[in-house]
Amino acid sequence: MSSSDSVVSLEDVTVEFGNDGGVFDFFGESNPVRAVNDVSLDIGEREIVTLIGESGCGKSTLGKTAIGVQKPTSGSVKYRGQDIWEARNNGKNASISFSEIRHALQIIHQDPGSALNPNQRVITSLSLPLKKWNPDMSRERREERIYALFERVGMTPPGDFLNRYPHQLSGGEKQRAVLVRAMLLNPDLILADEAISALDVSLRVEMMDLMLELQDIFDTSYLFISHDLSNARYIAEKSGGRIAVMYLGEIVEIGTVDEIIDNAQHPYTKALRWATPNLFDDRDDSDEFPIREIDVPDPTDLPSGCNFHPRCPEAREVCQREHPGVFQSETGGHQCRCFRADDSHEYWNSSPLYD
Ligand SMILES: Nc1ncnc2c1ncn2[C@@H]1O[C@H](COP(=O)(O)OP(=O)(O)OP(=O)(O)O)[C@@H](O)[C@H]1O
């Protein structure tokens, strides 16, 4: 996919936190955290990209950067070809205004409670954004749309739910209300940041199905963040989307379900897959955990060479010295940041690092 066909396109994006002139900088006590490191990613029309990786690897920061909430330290983030930060800072030259971009890129969080005002009835919380973005829409028309969507997501009769306060809804009902609120704005992309993680396991599939159903109606793309590979697999498989695996700020592998689940190339992806037993029918219980059991490196003090080499059972001397670039499969879709993806790399003649 080229960046011109994309809804959102990130190119060489890096996001650092720290070194902001605070008191710790003065004493030289803080190194910046490179939460996102040189990430390029295109999200297509009606595409679902799932970001997966352990806590602190940079998923939320990358997600917020993709929707224009977090400014990148370097690199560009474009919405339909328009640089989001240029639109924000230099609106006169922008072909798409920053407010149009913010309208088109919505977010739903893990905690739906935080998105609904506890002191307002649900109908009010859902009406306000519609009113803001469509000031000419009559109150009757607004409520008609909200009621229709509530019916669509199975919250019937809608009035029973809409006239309650958020604390009178269950977690699953609140999350559905928040999804409806985002969809009412007819966004092009929704960042779903761990949006199903707080739900009971039994409700997660229901919520993912609902997201897919609404995607069909509204032609929405999703950037779906999860730390659970089986959820990532479910949504990517059903939508024909891609899974992107993050490790310490980088996308270390990206591809379709077949490529990531059945033909993983990166040792970290293989470790995630191993750690998700319900994905791995052929696992022998005596198999060793395919990752070296040391602490996750400090994101303010990244290792030399490949970020993953201290934990990688396949690491060789070159991995300690050189940072791997992105290797692409012949079709270009399956990408991996590991020397092992290149049959002719000097890695294969380099000495193993660990016994
Ligand atoms: N505003 C901030 N200021 C300083 N550091 C931050 C900030 N936001 C994130 N970080 C750091 O950036 C790194 C990536 O954080 P991020 O929340 O993006 O990861 P994550 O993969 O989404 O984690 P989790 O799954 O726990 O939410 C972490 O080391 C985190 O502490």
Give a written overview of the molecule:
The protein is of the alpha/beta class. Helices cover 33% and strands 19% of the residues. It contains 13 helices and 12 strands. Helix 5 runs parallel beside helix 8. The longest helix has 18 residues. The radius of gyration is 22 Å and the shape is globular. 41% of the residues are buried. The site of adenosine-5'-triphosphate has 13 residues, from strand 2 and helix 2.
Tag the structure with descriptive keywords.
alpha/beta, Rossmann fold, 8-stranded mixed sheet, 19% strand, globular, binds adenosine-5'-triphosphate
Number of domains: 2
Which ligands accompany this protein?
adenosine-5'-triphosphate
First-last Cα distance: 41 Å
Largest sheet, in brief, is:
8 strands, mixed
Mean pLDDT: 89
The computed structural class is: alpha/beta
Uncertain spans, ≥5 residues at pLDDT below 50?
Answer: none
Please count the helical segments: 13
Q: Which of globular, elongated, flat, extended, rod-shaped describes the shape?
A: globular
Helicity, in percent? 25-40%
Strands side by side in the biggest sheet: 6-7-8-3-9-10-12-11
Supply the CATH superfamily name of the largest domain.
P-loop containing nucleotide triphosphate hydrolases
Tell me how many strands there are: 12
Q: What is the string of helix and strand elements?
A: EHEEHEEHHEHHHHEHEHEEHHHEE
Going by CATH, the architecture of the largest domain would be: 3-Layer(aba) Sandwich
What is the CATH fold-level name of the largest domain?
Answer: Rossmann fold
The share of residues in extended strands comes to: 15-25%
Q: What is the CATH level 1 assignment of the largest domain?
A: Alpha Beta
How large, in whole angstroms, is the Cα Rg?
22 Å
